[in-house]
Amino acid sequence: MIKRNPCAANIKAGYLFPEIAKRRKEYAAKHPGAKIISLGVGNTTEPILPHIDKGLVDGAAGLGTAEGYSGYADEGFENLRRRISEVFYNGAFGIDEIFISDGAKCDIGRLQLLFGSGVPVAVQDPSYPVYVDGSVLIGAAGPWAEDGYSGITYLPCTEENGYFPDVTKIPENGIFYFCSPNNPTGAAATREQLNALVRSARERGTFIIFDAAYSEYIRESTLPKSIFEIDGAKTCAVEVNSFSKPAGFTGVRLGWTVVPGELVYSGGESVNADWNRICGTIFNGASNIAQYGGLAALDEEGLKEIRRLSDFYLGNAKLIRKALRELGVSCVGGDNSPYIWARFPGRDSWDVFAEILEKCQVLTTPGAGFGPAGRSFIRFSAFGHRPDVEEACERLAGLRG
Ligand code: PL4
């Protein structure tokens, strides 16, 4: 019989989000009739807004006509790539530098093929678990130790450092995953912070994989939405982004990755050429229907809908933060991101998760799932119907005393 891939053996048994879903099911089985409200997984809940939806519907209808039919569109529609460059990067990238994907998470997984095993990897601690789990799967990070967290460099993002890590500690000639606005802390990095990050990456020969999946939630005009707003980033960074959270495409599936032509390996070879080769080999492109939706999302009307949808979820975030603060729980985030990061000093996050579920029937995400620095935190997601969020906020009052 064939041997198990040792990298698969190294990975922790359960991925965080299915684990949360499992605990929800177990609770529901023990408490039939309980109305559980989820502020857990960051999954969009509101209908796709009409103009963007029409783009999807018209795109699908067009595929049923001789003029509108199209087959494989491997790197993505040229007009969508051009529009992404205009809307998000002020036209700074050619279409050959923008690759359409079926979502940011999928490209994060595929990007790991660029560097292979044995590459030093660092993450913000806490961070979206895909960076760590994916690195373990490809063999870039060793097995998980008893404490559940070794094999990778974790750079703490805490209250003390304003949730921005010491970027002079990123490993040389390695990869650093950086997410802003951050999941789970909600912190959006300032221009000065990103300048320091790019400077350090260039000095240390480190590639930044910049996850900008929540950039459309940024409301403070001085905060950069892209790493490519920073001088020098084109020689040290790749950026992934997504239509999931701004346009409600979590189920539709559409994203993109920018790999600048200037980005080269230590031997001078082009990273863009390798990425093109990898995608051409193992990816056949995003759905054409999703791409029609993406085009609608990026025209004038669609951009207004993106703003309206993200404003709605930010409204939820405000309510959650207010409810927590009224309880005396210290929390950050929710201003420029759909996540609130709440601190429960001296408590284990899985215990707090269980308590909130038990007392309030509200599902959250325990901070420990995002890294060791999250052990005493709970992440609240602002993705929910407004009446559910309001009810969850009322129920949280049950944590008093
Ligand atoms: C649950 C920082 C959520 N099953 O939809 P995509 O693939 O374009 O984007 C996924 C993604 C990428 N980057 C960041 C993210 O936070 C997410 C989505 N994260 C969450 O609750 O943290 C959904 C998680 C989903 C998953 O595993 O991604």
CATH homologous group name of the largest domain: Type I PLP-dependent aspartate aminotransferase-like (Major domain)
The whole-number mean of residue pLDDT values reads: 95
Would you tell me which CATH topology of the largest domain applies? Answer: Aspartate Aminotransferase, domain 2
Radius of gyration: 21 Å
CATH classification, class level of the largest domain: Alpha Beta
**How do the strands line up in the largest sheet?**
2-8-7-6-5-3-4
Give the second-level CATH assignment, the architecture of the largest domain: 3-Layer(aba) Sandwich
Query: How many H/I helical runs?
Result: 13
Shape: globular
What structural class is derived from the secondary structure elements?
A: alpha/beta
Strand percentage lies at 5-15%
Q: Return residue spans where pLDDT drops below 50 for at least 5 consecutive residues.
A: none
Distinct ligand kinds = ligand PL4
> What's the helical proportion of residues?
25-40%
Q: From N to C, what is the helix and strand string?
A: HHEHHEHEHEEHEEHEHHHEEHEEEH
How widely separated are the two ends?
Answer: 57 Å
Report the count of strand segments.
13
